[in-house]
Amino acid sequence: MSTSSPVPSNYAAALADLKQQVRRARFTAQRRVNTELVRLYWGIGSTIRQRQQQDGWGTKVISRLADDLRAAFPDMKGFSPRNLAYMRAFAVAWRSEEVLQQAVAQLPWGHITVLLDRLDDQRTRDWYAAHSVEHGWSRNVLQHHIRTEAHIRVQAAPSNFAATLPAGESDLAQQLTKDPYVLDFLALDSDAKERHLEQALIDRIIDTLRELGEGFAFVGRQVHFDVDGDDFYVDLLFFHVEQLRYVVIELKTGKFKPEYLGQLGFYVALVDDKLRRSQHADTVGLLLVADKNDAVVRYSLGAHHSPIGVASYDLLPPAVKAALPSERDLAAALDRATSDSDPEEPR
After folding, report:
1. SS3 313
2. Smallest Cα–Cα separation from 184: which of 235, 145, 135, 222?
3. Lowest-pLDDT range, 42-51, 179-188, 223-232?
4. Which segments of 157-302 does DSSP mark as H helices, in order?
5. Is the pLDDT score of 183 beyond 60?
6. Burial class (CB in 10 A: 0-12, 13-18, 19+), 308
7. Please, what sign has the CA dihedral across residues 180, 181, 186, 190?
8. For residues 292 and 315, what is the distance between their CA atoms, to the nearest angstrom?
9. Of the four listed, 43, 243, 316, 336, which is most buried by Cβ atoms within 10 Å?
């Protein structure tokens, strides 16, 4: 019975390096294949668009083309009439061949069909394509961000970062914010208490992190600090692994009040002193409220020296919320209904 040869001391490191080389090569190959597929689909779509304009190709011709391509290339998928229609839409949306140098060309085809299905504005499509590539969004995450209109909400929270942080850091900190935050995954009504909102966010921590954005890591809930015998508890504490900074989040289920900033500023200072290390960036605070007057928020932020942002949160997606009648509309409808139901006065 033969005995195995002794493993050299540096074998494990060499194996790990080779595995990494293989992974990089496979990833590069997959990206090249994807790019060539996108190039092919754009070319087919461009040809269909031109033939429709010049020769009047209709639905029957496209169906015949799909059948013939599938017969010629039986091992290839993607030549259904529906997918050919997507290819044409792709060539219409991005008319120049320079599309192959843009972010959208780095996306899987499934992502591109989502952009075509869900969005009409080209600048908005380009925004989601660029962010999908930058952050590695899955198809489901891309759909979530489109549904909740992330392009309008990202970096939109009022803050005093520009006045309280160095120029470079203030821009980075602002990138962590949204306004409003869409918490529709919590399945709560507008009367939920703060502790219920906080608990629901923790129960759905994966969805919470997705809504907060890339790079957030959960540190703790009701994080305890002892200050010379007095107890204090931070609602939610996160750490941003890319910016290397703590983010303190306080929740208020009512409308914004200026005094809320004093409490949050105290917590930011506390975390900065007790937890922050020399290699960390400045701690920032984020106050989430059910409603706010932006003018009141701006005045209030101007009086505080701790870096704080203020954002509202919605328990419904923007499109759903916009479709609902306002309180004024409901009150008017109720008044009309009451008036119509009143019996006529006797003459």
Report:
1. strand
2. 145
3. 179-188
4. 161-164, 167-175, 194-203, 205-212, 259-274, 294-302
5. yes
6. buried
7. negative
8. 15
9. 243
Residue 347 binned pLDDT confidence (cut-offs 50, 70, 90): very low
Q: What is the mean pLDDT of residues 11-21?
A: 84
Residue 181 bridge partners (DSSP): 313
CA distance 202 to 196: 10
Question: Which residues have C-beta within 8 Å of that of residue 220, sequence separation ≥ 6?
Answer: 234, 236, 237
Sheet holding 245-255, edge to edge: 181-182, 308-314, 284-291, 245-255, 230-240, 216-227
Asked if residue 293 lies in contact with residue 160, where contact means CB atoms within 8 angstroms, the answer is no
Give the C-alpha separation, 243 to 282, whole Å. 10
H helical segments located in the chain: 11-55, 59-72, 81-93, 109-118, 122-135, 139-147, 150-153, 161-164, 167-175, 194-203, 205-212, 259-274, 294-302, 318-323, 327-341
**What contacts 253, CB < 8 A, 6 or more positions away?**
192, 193, 194, 197, 289, 290
210's CB contacts (< 8 A; 6+ apart) are 141, 144
Query: CA-to-CA distance for 195 and 94, rounded, in angstroms?
Result: 48
Residue 315 pLDDT level (bands cut at 50, 70, 90) = confident
CB atoms within 10 A of CB 288: 26
- Taking only the tens place, the pLDDT of each residue in 191-212 is 778 989 999 999 999 999 999 9
pLDDT in tens, 227-271: 999 999 999 999 999 999 999 999 999 999 999 999 999 999 999
From residue 132, give the alpha-carbon distance in Å to each of 129, 146, 214, 282.
5, 11, 11, 28
pTM of the model: 0.79
Phi, psi of 162 (to 5 degrees): -60, -30
Q: Which two tokens stand for residue 223?
A: 């994080």
